[in-house]
């Protein structure tokens, strides 16, 4: 025990002497947690719309006003020909074109039907899909208003009333969905990258040979390398969850906090074991950074942070089952938003325990082979 304590003292001194490392460990995660949830918003706004109005009627003006007043669209121009409007899309000055045909108001009143044409710049698939859906919904609402206006007062039109209730995120705040996931991402970046550099630094400065010939056992060395970053990871997680998320976004865990901390503690052990495993295979910091960044990038992109895992192809869903970050993001959202406890996260906890056991055992065994 005394050996481990001495190793921990040595590791903490080495960490806090590194003036370039401290901002990365403490300042960068806080700034990222403050900025990233505000920027990572899938709600598309300020869609540039070009209108080609061949009718110039009262109804066509009302439709255009209703669209621009929705808050989603910004009128980029009003042209008399479709060819002129298409140049707006070609010049990246517009995202959608709405063409209103001649006789729009007359045919709508006389024949109860009319068509409008919508052209969408589909280079950005998400923006195109959402923009087209928003526009279609606004036109449908406008159509409903006209129907109500021309319906006889004593005529009863059939309809369906929908009563809805939003669970777990009552006001549908997108930041409430993103903050737990981004916090999990930051804990992963700090724990994974920093631990991957740990043993490699000892190799570069030449102290690894001194450690190898000392009476320190191999598992003492691994534990001494793992615990400091485990403590720092838990500290960063606590600051992010109870300070930044609470004060900046008004988010507080609805579920079991002990269950969440237990899961994060085991997750950090697994992640640090993965970082130490990378460190045993690499000979310098450049190699370790490249390998760690390669795996962490894949982990984050296939974690369900931005794209639901259920929407991925079958092979990607299979790969995601071996992604520890996916389990952390899932548990974070379950506990913070849904109010889950030990019972609900039992499967994820057992899985992450298996990750921790395998990765740390592999790191210890590989260090013995290559030292």
TrEMBL record:
Record-linked Pfam families: ABC2_membrane_3 (PF12698)
InterPro entries: ABC-2_transporter_component, ABC2_TM, ABC2_TM_bact-type
Protein keywords: Cell membrane, Membrane, Transmembrane, Transmembrane helix, Transport
PANTHER family reported in the protein's UniProt record: MEMBRANE COMPONENT OF ABC TRANSPORTER YHHJ-RELATED (PTHR30294), MULTIDRUG ABC TRANSPORTER PERMEASE YBHS-RELATED (PTHR30294:SF29)
Source species: Taibaiella soli
Annotated protein name in UniProt: ABC transporter permease
Compartments reported by the entry: Cell membrane
A GO term from the CC aspect: plasma membrane
GO molecular function, one term: ABC-type transporter activity
Occurrences of domain ABC transmembrane type-2 (ranges): 144-370
Family statement: Belongs to the ABC-2 integral membrane protein family.
Ranges that cross the membrane: 20-40, 177-201, 222-247, 259-279, 291-309, 347-365
Entry membrane topology: Multi-pass membrane protein
Keyword Transmembrane set for record: yes
